Amino acid sequence: MPPLPTMTHSSSFLLPSSSPPAPPTGADAENAVSYAVVVLNQRLPRFAPLLWTRARLRVCADGGANRVFDGMPDLLPGEDPDEVRVRYKPDAIEGDMDSVRPEVKEYYSSLGTQIIDDSPDQDTTDLNKCISFITRNPPGPDNSNLFILVLGALGGRFDHEMGNINVLHRFSNTRIILLSDDSSIFLLPKTHSHEIHIERSVEGPHCGLIPMGAPSSSSTTTGLRWNLDNTSMNFGGLLSTSNIVEEEIVTVTSDSDLIWTISLRKHT
Amino acid sequence: PLRPSPLGPRAQVRVCADGGANRVFDGMPELLPGHARDDVRSRYKPDVIKGDMDSVRPEVKEYYSNLGTKIADQSHDQDTTDLHKCVAFITDNSPGSDKSNLCILVLGALGGRFDHEMGNINVLHLFPNIKIVLLSDDCLIFLLPRTHTHSIHIERSVEGPHCGLIPVGTPSTSTTTTGLRWNLDNTHMSFGGLISTSNIVDEDQVMVTSDSDLIWTISLRH
């Protein structure tokens, strides 16, 4: 059997920077990573302004617009709230509009934010709609180096959290990362061998590999304190939780899609 | 008259998993602001603090130990999660040998670090014969083992209407429900395909039958 292609992963978007990076030009532009941010309806994590600044496209799912309106000034207390709101203006607000406050919708609309009312579509979640929107309207030339960073997808109502994780499975060819104050999670599709670059200054050491939705007969890792070696994992049996990253690169191969999770350091 | 906290006076055994003792020590007085802190702390005293003791503050451990709380240090056991140790402790020590009426209510298992949450959900799958309910401010979840047909009575004054059925561990080839806005009828569910989220309870009784273990979740009213 031919070896699986390798997919590499990095959380460099969490690294602080003194100024927003300039958009790449020329040959670099073709390979450059571009970020989109989606904000769902939960309290913003502390690094929301950093990611927003890094992103070239910012979409709020319905009540996520309330969270940006209220929360960005709170996260940037030294600055004038009105200036913050204008600077941190979403490109689009998408969803069924039953959570966003009318005055918030009006405020952003008058600043040029696109309002996409999807209320007729009850079959897909708000996150699903936002991912579809972004993949149809990528900020760069295409989706090949697009990373979608999602804030507010974890915690809160459990069915929402599970629906959000299901979006990772349904869009398995799209790089989507769910972030909270405590953790970062993304899908490791079984079609690839994975190389996860650990940014030790902002993430770790706690990590895990979760066979979400289906058992894994065989997973193998390197770089963890308790590595898996052709190990089977399933709910009702062994899961890799409370593991520790020991090296700067973690490799994972599995016969099943796995969810990778790593803790975020408190000062991130 | 004192207003009891929702779970305290009714529970027969109260166990803190390691740093959970800090949360009780700090948090119970905050949730009962009309009462003297020391009164609250001695009234809401855990029976046991269990785990590897790397999170509980020394002074908190000391305080409860002096009041008679048993301290069960299991720092040598790195193979099971704190919740697992607590569930094992409760089942080993529960009044009566019949576990069919035992219900373990767990606070603090959802949200926070994702790997912890998943490890906690795994405990539900590891103890399928024990009713273990994980609760947060927003929702509660418990396992519906495939070995049974389930009749879920809905307390509409405190829970709902949002609910879901999640095949966390393995796909379900066939699930059937009644009582939901969007019922399943011999329906296939899996991650990557359909899972039942943002459903609505329409009746006081929800019935679920499935060929797979499912996680039931329902929102809690504020």
Automatic annotation (TrEMBL), chain B:
Its EC number is 2.7.6.2. It is an enzyme of class 2 (transferase). GO terms for molecular function: ATP binding; kinase activity; thiamine binding; thiamine diphosphokinase activity. Catalyzes the phosphorylation of thiamine to thiamine pyrophosphate (TPP). TPP is an active cofactor for enzymes involved in glycolysis and energy production. Plant leaves require high levels of TPP for photosynthesis and carbohydrate metabolism. Keywords: ATP-binding, Kinase, Nucleotide-binding, Transferase. It is found in: Cytoplasm, Cytosol. Belongs to the thiamine pyrophosphokinase family. It comes from the Eukaryota. The keyword Lyase does not apply. NCBIfam families: thi_PPkinase. It comes from Aegilops tauschii subsp. strangulata. GO terms for cellular component: cytosol. The lineage of its organism: Eukaryota, Viridiplantae, Streptophyta, Embryophyta, Tracheophyta. One of its GO terms (biological process) is thiamine diphosphate biosynthetic process. Pfam families: TPK_B1_binding, TPK_catalytic. InterPro entries: Thi_PPkinase, Thiamin_pyrophosphokinase_euk, Thiamin_PyroPKinase_B1-bd, TPK_B1-bd_sf, TPK_catalytic, TPK_catalytic_sf. Pathway: Cofactor biosynthesis; thiamine diphosphate biosynthesis; thiamine diphosphate from thiamine: step 1/1. PANTHER family: THIAMIN PYROPHOSPHOKINASE, THIAMIN PYROPHOSPHOKINASE 1. This is thiamine diphosphokinase. Residues 150-214 form the Thiamin pyrophosphokinase thiamin-binding domain.
